[in-house]
Fold:
Amino acid sequence: MKNQRRPIAVLTAYDYPFAQILDGAGTDIILVGDSLANAVLGLKSTTEVGIEEMVHHAKAVNRAVKKAMVVGDLPFSSYQIEGADVLKDARRLIEAGCDAVKVEWFKNCLDVVKVLRSAGLAVMGHIGLTPQTADELGGFKVQGRTAETAKRLYDQALALQQAECFSIVLECVPGTLARIITEKLTIPTIGIGAGAFCDGQVLVLHDMLGLLEGKPPKFVRKFADYRRDVGKTIEDYLTAVRCHEFPGDAESYGMQEKELEMFIKTVNQTGEFSDC
Ligand code: KIV
Structure:
């Protein structure tokens, strides 16, 4: 797709129904992101999500997907803490049906990619604003705005390509830098807050659907306001229940008159439900 200049459309998904919708609509890559933490589980940081949750949700997504490539995010605890067994965790995501795993840049990132590639696993890299190590980057801020930090990101991108990543996510970097990196690399770049010149784009599904509370980051376009729409739909249901308007005849099951009469006779004879 990169060679043909066909933009790669990527979205996150964490469950069966949304994965089915995304796949049916023709999404190229579905990412089971560790944004699961904030988007779905109500956690503050992606570092709070572990491999058990990632595998659980990856299985749900993969049960639905027939066509798209599915990438599973390796969580922070799979490779950035002492005693982690990244290969074991990556294999669990692959056994859950994922085609590839994604790793965020950190100081030993290239060693991790090497281990995964030696085992034959397809790896997507992730540089720029890497939420798992955002504290070390000065928070959730645009990365690579100075000549020095831009060069660092450029070098990281080249190193990940050299380490045989099949693609790299560029998060929250100036569009001009993303363009230079994209033109330099032979593997595709997938941008999120990285301007229009990446080979593909990714958004967190719940951000672009407008499902989450609060103001999203600048780079998010809300393609819908489902928080408002779903909220309104729930209110309609509550009103219908409370006004005895739901369920109506069309949503209820009937019984043949003859059977009903026989039944009432029986319970009356046995003295039960004698009010009937
Ligand atoms: O976890 C995630 O959803 C991600 C994307 C934002 C790229 O890593």
In short: The pocket of 3-methyl-2-oxobutanoic acid is lined by residues 12, 31, 33-35, 73, 126, 169, 192, 202, 204 (CB under 6 Å).
